[in-house]
Specification:
This protein is α+β, with helices and mostly antiparallel strands. It has a four-stranded antiparallel beta sheet with strand order 14-13-16-17, with no helix packed on it. It has a three-stranded antiparallel beta sheet with strand order 2-1-3, with no helix packed on it. A three-stranded antiparallel beta sheet has the order 5-4-6, with no helix packed on it. The longest helix has 20 residues. The radius of gyration is 64 Å and the shape is rod-shaped.
Length: about 425
Amino acid sequence: MKTAIAFVEVFFLIVHYQIILGNFSKRQYKEKTNEKFYGIMRSGSLPYSFYRWLNPPPVDDDGDGYDNTVDCNDQDASINPGVAEVCDGVDNNCDGQTDENFPLFTYYLDMDGDGFGGVNSLTSCDSLTPPGYSTNPQDCNDGDSLIHPLASEVCDSIDNNCNGIHNEGLPSITYFQDMDGDGYGSGNPHQGCAVPNGFVTNDNDCDDWDAAINPSAQEVCPIYDPSSPILDSDEDCDGLWNDDDPSVTGLIHYYVDEDCDGFSYADANMESSCFGSPCNLWNWPYSGYIWNGFGDCDDNNGEIYPSQIEWCDSLDNNCNGLIDENCFLDSAELDKPQFSINFYPNPFKDLLHIMIDFHLKLSKPLIIRCISITGQILEERYFMDTEKIYFSMGSNWNPGFYTMEVQYFGIEKRFKLIKI
């Protein structure tokens, strides 16, 4: 008996499961089953929890008249197949589309907030521009609010107004490189809207490697250095050098010396030059003297001046008002000269050659001295009892004026020598 009841229960469960799978309701289930058979079932053998629906019936949770089989959002009564689509980014009418039949607008991200967008964009049916966006993508640098199509172009080699050109419309400036940094340039011109570092707007520098030479510099006389050649320049770049430039400083003042013997007339006019007297230029850079002496009694004869040695020539060589003073000549010696002397060449450059021819035997030494213009004895030689002598002097003398003094037995003769 128990076996039979267990079988019946198993059979009932199988049949009931199949009925439910066939989408029968609970009422239909009762109608189609044998009430008698159902009644014989042991109470509790089929728990109520068994009657669960595998395919529940449609429902309308939001009460908008559309059940959940057609309503795409049954939790919102404003969304169902019967409403009109609105621009809100939602499928309002449940047709599977969003914001259809509305015009679409493209907006561009404006990261720098200058009113112009870049390349990043979004599309929306909303005609109101979202915050942080722009209706145009015309910004060529969306990271700089000073760069956009309405910006003014400035001289910075950047396309400020996003027209694809930089520095357009700005005045063009011509400038030149300033190599020595003195504010004056030279060389080839350059064009631009601004002057870069190391450049200036003029090319007036006549020596762009020396900052001391430019149109604002002072023209000065060169400094004489006997050990080196004279290096000079047009310091103020006006095309005039030294004495020719009226603005020059460092002039040397001197008195006119017509015969260039270092002395002038007492009433001579004073002049000025960077190099002193023009006479001095002939010896430049050897002597370095500035001729400013007075008292020349014959300014047309370079052999006559106050410090000159008095020669036995019937002239006032030393301008002391006397002629041939201290000139001791023995008439007996003149009647029978004992020697003759020849100097050559004069002026000389390297060596002065001296030849002495003795006619008689000397009773006293013959003395020959070379004396500088300052009175210093440079060389002195003694000769006796010979017929002819030939020798040279002057190899170590500096260029200038010298006196050769020949002295014998109270007879003294002087000769003027010039080394060039």
